[in-house]
Amino acid sequence: MAGAPESIVDRLSDGGPDWLATQRKEALASWASQSMPTSKEEEWRYVDLDFDIDDYRPVDGAGDPLDIDEFSGAILATSGRATVVDGWPGDVEPGRVNLGTIERFLDLPSVTDRYGTAVDPAQSIFAAAQRALAPGGLVIHVPSGVAIDDPVVVDLQAVTPGSVSFPHVSIVMEENTEVSVVVISRSAPGIDVLHIPTIEAFVGDAGRLSLTTIQNHDRRAKSVANHKIVLGRDSTLKIGEVGLGAGYGRQRLAVDLNGAGASVQMNGVYFGDSDQVLDYRVFVTHRGPKTASNIFLKGAVQDQAQAVWTGLVRIESEAVGTSAFETNRNLVLSEGARVNSVPNLEILTDDLQCGHGSSSGPLEEEHLYYLMSRGLQKDRAERLLVRGFFEEMITKLPVKSLAGPSREAVNRKYGEAQREGRV
Amino acid sequence: MADRPALDVHNLKVSVGDVGILKGLDLTVPFGEVHAIMGPNGSGKSTLSHVLSGKSGYEVSGDVWLDGEPLLVMDVDQRARAGLMQAFQYPVQVPGVGLGSFVLEAGAAQGIAASDMNEKVSAAADAVGAGPFLERAINDGLSGGEKKRSEIFQIVALQPKVAILDEIDSGLDIDAVRDVADAVQALRGPGVGIVLITHYSRILEHVTPDRVHVMMDGTVVDTGGPELADELEEGGYQSIRNRLGLTSRAPDPGTTDEGSTPFDF
Fold first, then answer.
1. CB-nearest partner of B105 from A364, A370, A384
2. pTM of the entire structure?
3. Closest chain B residue by Cα to residue A392
4. From the CA of B186, how many Å to the nearest CA of chain A?
5. What would the pLDDT profile of A227-279 be if each residue is shown by its tens digit?
6. Interchain proximity A367–B55, CB inside 8 Å
7. Domains in chain B with CATH codes
8. What residues contact A335, with CB distance under 8 A and at least 6 apart?
9. Which residue of A204, A216, A334, A344 has the fewest CB atoms within a 10 Å radius of its CB?
10. Does A384 touch chain B (CB under 8 A)?
């Protein structure tokens, strides 16, 4: 899709609804007013980006899709599958949910009123570019009263070298609904791409959303994800995160607990090696009374990898009777690896229960001694401890069939480093 | 070869920094025997068990043989595979590592076939009553007594040549002491020398030791048969000191080895 962003926006919007064209144009204006972020900005502290969005090219269609991967392959029973290649929705196998591109939902105000509204383009140049240049995105709509067990699997792929792509997934859940969505992000081996996905979810009153994100890009890819989930009254959100790939892999996740009694539980693992930078920014806002959040991620870094985790939980004055907990634990497995782990609570009410915890360090000597004192060789004991460290999170991933490949992926990373003498 | 030593310790000296803890300790435990090591707090009992297991942080000299093999040159894991294992007084909790799968791994590290090890694990779990802990992370949420049971279960399953049981009876009520004692009896056999380190003589009411060694200030000051434990029961460590003409050290704060009886149930 050669040409200036203006012409791309015009072409994307050609024949589409006016409101979407307006969204794109406003985002384009926001993009023009922003520049690449630097580590001086609070939300980008601790990282120095070594790439520029202008170095990558938008593409006007999908490249060849990849073969199925071990994560989507592990999920045997689904309620629908969709593949999005280079930002362009491709194959859709509808199941028991309404699954398709936004064009299919233009007569449904609960979708059109919300689509594309969750992430503010002013938030970053990436968010603005995403809103301006995303082709018509994928919509998962759950009609009122419908509850579905088996997950909807969305496979986001970047396959065209040098491309920047903007996948968009919009989950709209009416009242008293339940759905599980798994979103896998990955790229073709050995190619440099910039992947800027957004997942937005609107959970209606008494809705139950389980969202699992797997970031398994090739090491040459850069990934800048901006996700936002808005929760209604008495709704629940379970998030699972597995972060493995990308040279730079960022996930900015915002959760707004707007309705009374809404809750979020997030559990995740990430593992960085070589010179990977895995960058997590989690924002939870408690607006409704009696809302609850529990955010717990565990990560490991080795070689020269860096992990960043900042959690900002804000409790508004009207959010009385709230409970808010955030925890981040990190294993630093080589001397050259580093972690910035910063939990923050911003509390505007005094009627709450809250806590935060953060730690970063090597494997515990006492644990190693114990395991070795029963005859386990040091490397075997270390593998068992690394596996044990992640196990607490892996068993809490909302989709049980993803535990196996997640466990194998983190164990493989550590096992390879051990065999090569890097840890 | 009834008297072949499972463990042979000669002139063992251990210090941490400038502080000497073990001061030329000798100890020989033949296969098939249970030796109790008794001593007041601070006499060096736990240091002895950690040094034998190979914990780092100690300066060590002297000679130790495990079934004729020099022990002190081995790493922690090599010692265990060579046949020396310890039931810890204060075992750590290891998150995410299941007890059952850990013991299977430990068996694999010794080259025991998985099917054989599975049998050993079930038999040991039945013998010691550790079945409920197998699926849990090591020591995760276990009570004091359950931790002791979990420790001795591992020793029974892994069948070392030398089992060091460090205060396996401490902090337990009388019923739990009997259970642990039963487990020690189950462990007893011609292929193992057992070192039973204890503060109190109460476990010895259930496990009759072949020899009793009294440790004070870093050495074994007296060795005898089960009657030595009876002497301790009656007169405390002071009675031993008086008999041997030893001067009393200043008491450690919080210890019970001076004056009144340490055998408070």
1. A384
2. 0.92
3. B96
4. 19
5. 999 999 999 999 999 999 999 999 999 999 999 999 999 999 999 999 999 99
6. no
7. 5-244 (3.40.50.300)
8. none
9. A344
10. yes
